[in-house]
Design a protein that fits this description.
2 domains; mainly alpha; 139 residues; elongated; 6 helices; 65% helix
């Protein structure tokens, strides 16, 4: 069995997203060919599951690209905070930033109430702009 190739790129960068797109496309094409060549139903089922997993990965690529773009706008300290968050919380951070680009208004409900575990990191990333001490890198 072939070993999975390790990505030489840092997670969250645009080059990582490009690498993952190529990797998932390759895996999807291999699995599709395996489905067509499979003789017994178990092998066919496994190949179909691998193809479906590769397609799910390909659907996630635009999110990875958006995360890489958002991450590149942060300074180094905020990048460390952002890198420590799970992918779902990063997606939520992107959604909140798109909905409230100037900061969350005081009369709006708390957008981070659904993820209390990572609330402090999300607060540091998003609410710091409203308090006036967040510095974005000039892009």
């Amino acid at each position: 069995m072939a070993r999975r190739r390790r990505s030489p790129y840092r997670f969250g960068t645009p080059s990582y997203a490009r690498h993952r797109r190529a990797e998932f496309t390759r895996l999807a094409n291999l699995a599709k060919g395996r489905v067509e060549r499979a003789k017994n139903p178990e092998a066919r089922q496994r190949a179909m599951q691998q193809a479906a997993a590769a397609r799910r990965g390909l659907r996630q690529i635009p999110l990875l690209e958006a995360i890489g773009e958002y991450r590149s706008q942060l300074d180094r300290a905020e990048q460390r905070i952002f890198d420590s968050l799970p992918l779902a919380v990063k997606a939520q951070e992107l959604e909140v930033d798109a909905r409230y680009p100037e900061g969350v208004p005081p009369d709006a409900p708390d957008p981070f109430a659904t993820s209390p575990r990572h609330r402090s990191a999300s607060w540091r990333l998003h609410y710091a702009t409203r308090a006036g001490f967040r510095h974005r890198r000039a892009g």
